């Protein structure tokens, strides 16, 4: 059993935001957690015990991380921050939470729920950062003095150990599931490939100027790159670092997720309020599903059976549930106002959680 958590940011001058919790066995909201201010981002520990939520009060310029016990859905801790949390990444062993802000990466010890380090780095234009599967290194677009670099951080010392020159203005990146390569997307249409063993650039590719997402198949064989400007999904062979297919999927394409079994890719198209389904083996579009206005993010259940698509319809949050077997929408669930983030727990069996 898994649970989907949706962060609803609420209204700037209205009541605080909420967290909606959906049960994947019934596709129903089973809990609504009231937050102190406006939740913007959320991540769940790999062991399924806690949800960490970036909570921001835009009017008073206060920001914090709220910690939710997944079993009870009760808030158990609040960690104050100096800067607004933008993205969260949690170590594979669930011991550390890395909070991405414009000025630094804040490191939180999940056992004590307190900040233990601040890594100074210029992340002004960056829109993602990534941790290697073994948890040893963080790759972040940007550097202390040069934005046209990727910084490599040793998580043992929480220090920058290398800076790698990339194409102009790196903005997004992703690490292969096997940890061998980092693919870095730049504003200037380029993809830079970094070898994680040598910590050096081994290839560059030119794709398009609106790269929105970089996602690998679970076996690390392929990478899908979506371009919001051209409406093209580019598919790259990771072994050779060469482009093998370009699939038109529609202007406005943004987030993409691939099922854990590696069979299907789901691409959101905000312009047409649709979800494009691709067969990973053939690279063919096999279905087009209409959802409510402005789909912005999605998650897939660990068993690859269902896809949950988050949308915002006139500031009213909607989650559409897609059944993978039939490639059809089987439920539409109302959540809170102005949904900002969505995530999913691993498969949980409470008696085994320590």
UniProtKB/TrEMBL annotation:
<dbReference type="InterPro" id="IPR011044">
    <property type="entry name" value="Quino_amine_DH_bsu"/>
</dbReference>
<dbReference type="InterPro" id="IPR051200">
    <property type="entry name" value="Host-pathogen_enzymatic-act"/>
</dbReference>
<dbReference type="InterPro" id="IPR015943">
    <property type="entry name" value="WD40/YVTN_repeat-like_dom_sf"/>
</dbReference>
<dbReference type="InterPro" id="IPR011964">
    <property type="entry name" value="YVTN_b-propeller_repeat"/>
</dbReference>
<dbReference type="Pfam" id="PF02239">
    <property type="entry name" value="Cytochrom_D1"/>
</dbReference>
<protein>
    <submittedName>
        <fullName>Beta-propeller fold lactonase family protein</fullName>
    </submittedName>
</protein>
